[in-house]
Design a protein that fits this description.
Elements (H helix, E strand, L loop, with lengths): L2 E2 L5 E3 L4 E19 L11 E2 L5 E2 L2 E2 L5 E9 L9 E7 L17 E6 L4 E6 L8 E10 L2 E11 L2 H8 L5 H15 L55 H9 L15 H43 L1 H4 L1 H43 L24 E8 L8 E6 L6 E4 L13 H21 L6 E6 L10 H6 L9 H24 L14 E9 L5 H13 L5 E7 L12 H6 L1 E3 L4 E5 L6 E6 L8 H16 L1
Helix pairs in contact: 1-2, 4-6, 7-12, 9-10
Length: 626
Amino acid sequence: MTAELVRGQNHPLSQVRLEIRISAGSPVLAGATLGDERGTVHGAEWVAHPGAPTLPGVEVSPQAAADHRLAVDLAALPEAVHRVSVLLALPERPGGPLRFGALAAPRTAVTGLDGTEIARFDLTGLDAESAVVALELYRRQGVWKVRAVGQGYAGGLAALLADQGLPSAAALASDVQEAVARSLARAVPAPPPSDTPDASGSPESRPARANGGRALGGPIDYTHPGRRPGTAPPPAGSQAASHAAAEGQPPRPVAGDAVGWSMDERLYNQVWGMFEDLARTTAAYRSAVDFADSRLEKELDQVLADPRARLGAAGDAAQEAAHARHTQLVDQARAALDRDVAQLAAESDVVEPALPTACARWDNPVWHGYRVPAEPPMALRLGDLHLPESAPLCIPLLVRLPLERGLWVDSGPAPGADDVFLDSAETRRLAMDAAVALAVRLLAVHPVGEFTLQVLDPAGTGAQALLPLTRTGAVTMPSSAGAAGVADVLGRLTRRVDLVQMALRGGAAESLPPDFDAAQQLLLVNDFPHGFDDRAVTQLRYLADEGPAVGVHLLVVADREDAAAYGPLLDPLWRSLMRLTPVPDDHLADPWVGHAWTYEPSLVPSGSRILQQVLTEVAAARIKRR
């Protein structure tokens, strides 16, 4: 059960490897200081910050961002360290907020490596402060605890560091702010207001990626963290090193070239780093093109506004020159984009084959050697994302597990070839195929007995798509058909959620009945709201809201128009579910830079029997476990 902390309250920590998750709603820099028994920070080498993000046992983000994940390994901290203070500060940037009071209250959470929240603290009540100590992890009598601090400093980062006894606090605070400014965190600058904007995408005009400190626009530093400057160099005389030296090219991309405790976590972070890089370079390209268009329009207006230059050879020459400058700027921007996309494509070529089963495409050979895992995965692949300027480069859409919200596969009208809409029956078939592929993936990547799939298909329209599941006995079907089966399944799952919630709130999770099935539950609902009465609709809404926190998840296949009769009653349900589509569609919005990403579902190749093969392996493992 998550502990909701208030200022000054503490909570024991039962794990030594933790994540500190921060959500601020606006870019902030996050860091950590290491203190002795009195909380004194003895030098700059005891401070983890964007300019020096890694210390023994602590790793922070190398740039400012709206969301952060700080890694902490209490067992790896130096013996002299008794206190880890997590700090937040506002970056000093033009137009940025000057005080935390102008922002929504930052939220912090201490979690285990599996994402389970241990404690949570909202930093309310901040006003003129521009730096704050959010949390404190401290050791007392050999036991580590977390304390909610929320101590703000109107004097900024320098005042915060000085209060912790750091010598030369002002100098270090200035260095930190300079490191943040160099990273240009989470911002795509507009083209400079000059006649020759930097459309080439130089490193100065692009922000750096959080993972590994790489920057688009210049050569991406593809070297593995263990082979970067200051660490061991590549083997002298190796083919890769010789080729790189001769050609002046960066070494080949390396899978797992990102921060993280495990290879799976490094790959996950690397994929999202690629997503950020593609978003940034595309935003820079679009911004440069917009600038070129506006400049062309301005120059043509100036030519046409002067009667002496509007007509004749002089006017024609002026217009041709304006169009030539426009073409040059656009071509420069396109060349920069193509270079960055080529670098990302090379990285994708090495990352994609290295992804673990849960994150791999269905055509990845890793599925042909599938065995039921012993541990649940960190993340799951829902599909792929791409932008029109960079096709065919696709970025895997990965989400952390356990799922924090349900999924909705939209079976409504969908465009087919030549923008002709598919007929309703075809769309519903494709939607059910996509949902089954997702359900099988979720079932296959969890250990035996830790994940259960149930299906509601009151009209039986999904029978063909469900055959791989029903033939292998991998799915639990309701004992009754139609509306009676819907009521039975929803009633059982609702009671389950109520029971677990009461046990957790009462601090008696171990007192659940001995025959209680602790496995996570996935309910696949086809053709909603067919077979649902008002009570069943209410129960489904309840499961969507309360289920994920206690291991009950929804995968709904539905056309929203079919539920139009319920009016706004179902609006909260649709908002609570993540919408996916059975065909490529640009409905996923990027709130960071405003891109509309095209989502493509992760489907099984035509004619492949991989689902049957995987489910057969799952069924055999279940029999062996009995």
